[in-house]
Amino acid sequence: MAYGRAATAALVGGVLLTALLWWAGAGANALHLQGATDVLGGRVVADLQQWLSPWSYDPPDSVRFGTGVLGDIADPASADPRRYLSLYETGMQIRFASVFAFFVAGALVLVRRLPPVNRRMPATLLAVCAWGMVAGMLAAAVSAPWIIASHGHGSYRLLPQLASMASSGQQINVVASFGAAVVTVLVARIAAKDAGPLPPAVVPVRAARLAATTGTAVVAVSLLVLSYESVAASIQRVTLSGGLLSEPGDLLRTWLLLGGWNAPAAGPLGLWFLYRLADVLLLAVVWWALRLLPVLLTRATVPAMAAGGVCATVVGLLAAQLFQFAVVGADSGPRWGRQYLTGALGGHVPAALTWGLLAGLTAVVTFRLAGGRAEGAEPVLPVPPLAPTPADPPERPVDDRGPRPVSPGGGR
Question: Rounded to whole angstroms, what are the CA distances from 39 to 34, 44, 129, 336?
């Protein structure tokens, strides 16, 4: 798809995603009213506040009124609180501008290399939805320093606060990303109507499978090795000497771990086995997506494969989370299942970005080294012989038996 057509769809989706997140954050103010608690219930209101507060322009009380005791040295309450309110508003402006910019940049690559034509629409929809979740996470991480500084104690546990804010607000981002992805794909579909059909791709099966296997192995390092309880605890206890970088463990855990699991002795074997099925589902989705990427992409370029690897990992992570939610809901009842969904849906996206990017790069390198398709190659079809046209005179048969002897009677 041409850049202009893809850019139109990406811009429309970026505007819609930003508007949906802004509208959701604006609705957080109504949850503070007593009527909302009476109608929805205290637990539902608390869950919705957890979803919407990271995208709300309404600052928390610690920013609005300051924290600590009046008169303390360097205390925000003793200073002008309007400075901290302005700092918080600047952070939120950076957050919404960043989510628009990140979504448009990724959606432009995906829609151009994975246009929703020739039965590609489901794949494009899932990829754009996954990238919307990544864009929301990156926007929260980029704007986190301003939000942390607006609380007046930015130097206190900076890296754990940064890790917490990078993972916050992902539940509502899942819903908003899906809505933006639907509109983006529909606009791209309309824009690609008058475009010609894409030529079929020639992809060696062995190279595609080998690339998918190596890319999935990269994701499995985080899911099966780093996410193990003892290894994850070792990562979280990492410390560095001095200053602001004294507690990097929480940040590393956020950006490296796709999940968390322990030995079967910690719980019932059947429930542990069901949770491991979710891990198998994640790896299966990643492998299948990486296997199909060289076929679905118009060109298996490095940016397209890298973005596709990220989207494949996020989609697999979301499928595993929904599977775990179904297991927990069936085992513990709808109440605990809802609480699990509220806390876990959309989590581990920073780790999915890290390992999905590495998986996509590994897959494209393996694919090319294994003899993947040449860019722009088309399948070779047998060409039928051409029949002679009426304008061409028929050729006489050539008699190659040599000259005939002449008879004495004149050849009669």
Answer: 9, 10, 32, 20
